[in-house]
Each structure stands twice: as C-alpha cells, then as structure tokens.
Design a protein that fits this description.
The protein is an alpha+beta fold. The protein contains 16 helices and 24 strands.
C-alpha cells in the first residue's frame, strides 16, 4: 500500500508538467433524471399526433452525431398534429455520448409521460423536450428545475453575491453572442470570497435570438432568491436555457469556446527554407538542453515526493490502522469506504490551537459521548469540534457512523462535516459552526421563544421535514436517524434548521427494505422514541416520523413531551395525549404557545394535525416523510383523522437499559438511552 501511494504521488508530480486544461476535475455531480409532463392537454393512443411522436422518437436512432450537441426535428404534416422536439447536450459531452443521452431521454420521456402533448426531461448530460406546437426559436421558461449543493454562505454574503452576479453576467454576455451553432459560455470569477474561487457556465438553445437568450438567462438569475438564495453551488434549468455556479472547476477547457482548427499551412517558400536552415542549429541545441534538464527535474521532484510520502506514512499509518481498523460499524456500508475519507483528516495540533487547547470557555455543550467546543482556524473559519470521551461505550460506533454518513451526505438541512481527527485515543469530529446553537435553546426558553414567530417556526418544521425526506428516500443510502429531537436540530444565522448527531443512525443500501428491523441496541431519547422501538427494538422510517411528530408539537406548544400541558403533578397527561384530547374536544387553540400572537391559525392547526398523525401508536398508520412533505405543501391534500397517540410510560421500558447522565438538561422523558442487552 505504501509503495502504491509513492507511485501515485510520483505520477501526480509528473503531471504538473501537463497543461492545466487537461487536469480539470471530473464532474461527478450526477442527478436522477427529472421528468416533467406539462399539463397542457393529452393525446389518445391512436391519434395522428401519437403516430408522429413515435416516428420522431424512432428516427433518433438513425441520426448521426453533431459537433455542437443540438438537435431540432419534427414529424408529420401541417395538419396541426405535427410533433416537434429539441435535444441539447452540455458542451463538454462527447458527440456519441450526447446522441446516446438524447435517444435514451426521448424513449424514457415518452414512457414517463405516455399521454402528455408537451413534456421535458433533464439528465446530467442532456435535455430533451417535445411538443404538439412549434418550439423552434421560441423562448420557454416554464417549467423550471434547480439543484443546490447543500452548502450555504455563512460569511461575506454581500461580497459573495457581488462575485456571483458579476461572473454570471459576464457569462451571459458571452453566451448571448455565441451565434447560431452554440450559445454557451464558461469561466471563473475574477475575484474570490474567503479564499474561494468560483466557476460558472451559461447555455441557451442555439436557435434562440440574442434577445431571447438574454431574457431567458436574466429570468433564471432573478429566480435565484426564491430557489437557491445563499447557496454556494447551484444548477438551474428551464427548457430554453440553463446556468451553473460552483466552487470547483467542473468543465474541461479554459476557453469559452473550443479553439478553431489550425489553418492549412502554405507550401514552403524559398525564404522560409532559408530561415529554417539558419535556425536549425539553434533548435537542435535547445532540444539537447531540454532533454538533459527535464529528467533531472523529474528525478528531483520524485525524491521530494518520496520523502513527503514516507514522512506522512510514518506519522499516520500506525495510529490510523490501529483505530480505524478495529472500530465497529453500525449499518451496511463496506469497510473499504472509509478509505475515501482521508481528505477529511485534520491535524490534532491545529484543533488544539483553534479551540485554545479545548478551553472550558470554548465549550458549547456536553452530551453522552463527549463535549463540543467552538474553534477558529488560523484563516478565520469558525468550527465546532466534538471531542468524544475516552470512556464512552458507544464512542467508536458514533465516531465511525458520523464520518461515513456526513462525508457522503449533502443537503442544506443537514449539518456539514468539515473533517475528523485521530490521535492516540483522541477522536474528534469537526463541523461547520452553527451560530444559533440548537432548537431547544429557543422553544423551551420563555424569553428566547419570543424570537420565534410563526413564520420562523413553520420554516423550521418544513426544513426538518425536507432533511428527513432526503435521508429516507433521496440520498445514496436509506438512513434512519433514530435520535431526532430538539437538541439535535441546529439553527443557522437565518434560523434555518440543520439535523445533527448521526452517531446512532442506521444505514441501508437503496435496494434494502426498511419496513421492519429489530435491534438489541436500543438508543435514543425518552419522549421522542416510538413505542415499538422503545419496548421491542423494532425500528423503521416510521420511527423517525414519530420523533418528527413530537418535534412539531413541541415547536407549536413550546412544551417538552414530559408532562401535561398545564399541570406539573404526577397524574398529569403527557404532552401528546393532552394535545390529542384538546383536538378531539375542539379546544385545540388552547395548546398553542401564547407567544405565537401572529400567523395563520389554519396553518398552525394543520401542522398540529400533521403532528398528531405522525405520533399515532400504530407505525402502519403514520405517514411517510414524503406524504408529510406533501401535506405541508398542498392544502388540497385532505388529512385523515388521527388515532390516539402512543404513550410509553417509563415503567414499561425494560429495566436493564442504562442511560447517560451527562446531558445538559435532564427530565423524565429526556434521558438518552445507551444500550439494551440482548433478549
């Protein structure tokens, strides 16, 4: 392994002599195709338009590739049933790959939208659309599609917006002037923000006029605040144009357009022959010098790289092999996937300096697995460092789970992992610093909850729902968090929620079912644990749905799920039962936090209703997070009547569960469970 690394570093060093345009980062930002069946009428199977569309799609297989990746074709006569289509590829896609992408997109689009007269699909490499009306040379900005990279800008916001706007405006000007074959531009920013340089591209369908291309891209730029505000990486699409903005170089060539082919050289003239003879000796001498110098430089460079590799291996290999090789893993990820996280390693001395040697003044909080400290790197970046305690029984599992999970997950509502550190018995995780701490600091504080109007609380509910939906259905793996609670929801400067603490998460491949799983290691927090999980170790995505429902009700009521809504004696109802009874008796307004003096009452009551559906005793009757997201976004979705919520009294929890006593705030239903012995 050591020799393999040496060889790798040697070739990396040699490649420094290769022109930079050959070393562009490979674009791995893949996304699933997005099919949009435009709601503008349907056709019948035996109609003239259906036949024309089928012939058009079939004709794609006989097309030859084009140099500019743009195809516009039609099928049928002028009777009004003619089928029109446009296909367009990203500039760097090879000709054959482009045509193959468009052919696949066309076949799949007609299968996904079998009756729609108009439809469009975006793949990573290409776009394809068809219509029953002419679409050639016409600007179309509906529908739209956007993707974000999951990392928001937290500092230098004004400078970031200025650099982004300047780059996109410059690329727009180049794309608009691209001519009838290719309206495309790419390039990087002239300035940087926080040591970061930015890269972008802009593209229109080449059949647009300059004015329509300009208008289309301006429409897209103006859509940024509503779809991607503050996002560092973004991609935006509509049928007639698209643009992209990243912090890494995702394209292959430096120039905005490929260089023209070299001109044909004229035949040598007598004068040129004479000049060649005069300079021949000089050229030979230059070649000899180059032949001597380059090998010497390469050998020296190889020696430097070899020393660097050996020193690095000596410092890290022993510790890394000892700690990582023996760590247990919760989930179904292969062990060799840990090797892909080497780039996240952070030096321990840097973390000591950043946290002032883990000073108590820098401590943000303490949990069952260690303490969290605020730190500042030498270049000014603020971080949060979780230092796992050495005597933690589950520290190894949590440590490995968080690295494997967060290194692969990218979503705006999940906390971002910056790096990790292993030094002897020290295990540290480095996260982005979230300014406003966790949600429980606000909703359970009589003074701070005044800062949370309904608009902010509704944004929190929606953000957590989107984050859970990503974990359950949209990420590379299917992930059950198992410890969703107010203290694990962090709030950024704009009070956007970010789900944190993935140490107890369970992971499954996308092909594995998550309907019913059992574990003898029950971990979580009383008050948020679904009854089937707390009592029998059975868990599924519905376990997280239950926790989400508890969280929704806590956000709206401002109360913890540990006792009654108005009383504090031993006979008081638990929060969920109190809210459900109030809903049944039509006095539900009484449970709303008194500090919520503004906001739509119908919207608040609908969220309570959704929360009650999520905490029903039977897991089968709880909605999935996909259904919850639909409930939150669409008032046309009729909500069913919720059944009585689950209530797990502490006496029925197995007595052989041990619990952590290091939490910041402890109550009868806020105890973190660590482990249940096998039955």
């Amino acid at each position: 392994m050591e020799h393999g690394s040496v060889i790798f570093f040697f070739f990396a060093c040699v490649l420094t002599f290769v022109p930079f345009h050959a070393l562009a980062q490979v674009d791995t930002y893949e996304f699933d195709p997005d099919f949009t069946c435009v709601d503008r009428g349907n056709f019948t199977v035996n109609s003239t338009f259906a036949g024309n569309l089928n012939r058009l799609v079939s004709s794609l297989s006989s097309l030859t590739s084009k140099p500019y990746g743009f195809y516009n074709l039609s099928s049928g006569d002028s009777s009004g049933e003619r089928a029109y289509a446009i296909g367009l590829c990203r500039r760097e896609v090879k000709r054959d790959d482009c045509l193959s992408c468009i052919q696949t997109a066309a076949r799949n689009l007609t299968e996904q939208c079998p009756r729609a007269k108009q439809a469009v699909v975006w793949y990573t490499q290409c776009m394809f659309r068809y219509s029953n009306r002419t679409i050639f040379g016409r600007k179309e900005t509906d529908p739209t599609l956007s993707f974000v990279g999951g990392e928001g800008i937290s500092a230098n916001r004004d400078e970031f917006e200025r650099v982004r706007r300047g780059l996109l405006d410059r690329l727009k000007g180049i794309a608009v002037a691209g001519g009838p074959n290719r309206k495309y531009a790419q390039g990087n920013s002239s300035g940087s923000v926080g040591f970061r340089k930015f890269y972008g591209s802009a593209q229109c369908t080449p059949d647009l006029s300059e004015q329509d291309c300009d208008d289309c891209l301006v429409f897209g730029f103006e859509s940024i605040p509503s779809c991607c505000d503050g996002e560092i990486g973004l991609r935006w699409f509509c049928p007639s144009c698209s643009f992209r903005f990243e912090t890494w170089r995702f394209y292959e060539f430096d120039a905005d357009l490929e260089p023209d082919p070299p001109a044909i050289q004229p035949a040598d003239s007598p004068n040129s022959a004479a000049k060649t003879e005069e300079t021949g000796k000089g050229k030979v001498g230059s070649k000899i010098v180059i032949a001597i110098v380059i090998p010497i430089v390469l050998v020296a460079l190889f020696a430097i790289c070899l020393c660097f590799v050996l020193k690095r291996k000596k410092n890290k290999s022993g510790v890394k092999a000892k700690v990582l090789g023996n760590l247990p893993l919760s989930g179904s990820i292969a062990e060799d996937e840990f090797s892909n996280t080497d780039s996240l390693l952070v030096d321990f001395e840097n973390l000591k300096a950043a946290t002032n040697n883990f000073s108590p003044e820098n401590e943000l909080g303490r949990g069952g697995f260690g303490s969290v400290y605020k730190g500042v790197f030498s270049h000014g970046q603020e971080i949060a460092v979780k230092r796992l305690s050495g005597n933690s029984g589950q520290g190894d599992i949590e440590f490995k789970n968080e690295i494997l999970l967060l290194a692969k997950l990218q979503h705006r509502n999940l906390v971002r992992l910056i790096g990790f550190c292993i030094q002897g018995q020290e295990r540290l995780l480095v996260y982005e610093f979230i300014k406003n701490a966790s949600l429980d600091h606000f909703i359970f504080d009589l003074e701070k909850r005044e800062l949370l109007d309904w608009g902010v609380r509704y944004k929190m509910i929606g953000g957590v729902a989107r984050g859970l939906l990503y974990l359950h259905e949209d990420s590379r793996y299917r992930i059950i968090h198992r410890d969703l609670k107010a203290s694990n929801i962090l709030l950024d400067q704009e009070m956007n929620p970010k789900i944190a603490d993935f140490g107890l998460a369970k992971l499954f491949d996308t092909g594995q079912t998550m309907t019913h799983r059992f574990t003898s290691r029950i971990a979580g927090t009383y008050g948020y644990m679904a009854p089937e999980y707390a009592m029998h170790g059975q868990f599924s995505v519905k376990t997280d749905v239950f926790s989400f429902g508890v969280l929704v009700i806590e956000i709206i009521t401002g109360k913890r799920n540990n006792n009654g809504g108005s009383n504090h004696d031993e006979d008081a109802e638990d929060l969920l039962t109190w809210v459900w009874r109030s809903w049944r008796e039509d006095i539900i307004l009484s449970v709303i936090d008194p500090s919520l003096t503004t906001g739509s009452r119908n919207e608040i009551l609908r969220c309570i209703h959704i929360g009650l559906l999520c905490v029903q005793e039977s897991a089968a009757t709880r909605p999935t997070m996909a259904t919850v997201a639909l409930m939150l976004s669409s008032y046309s979705f009729t909500l069913p009547t919720p059944s009585r919520p689950a209530f797990v009294i502490e006496s029925v929890i197995p007595s052989n569960i041990s619990s952590s006593t290091e939490g910041l705030r402890m109550s009868s239903n806020d105890v973190t469970v660590s482990e249940l012995a096998p039955r």
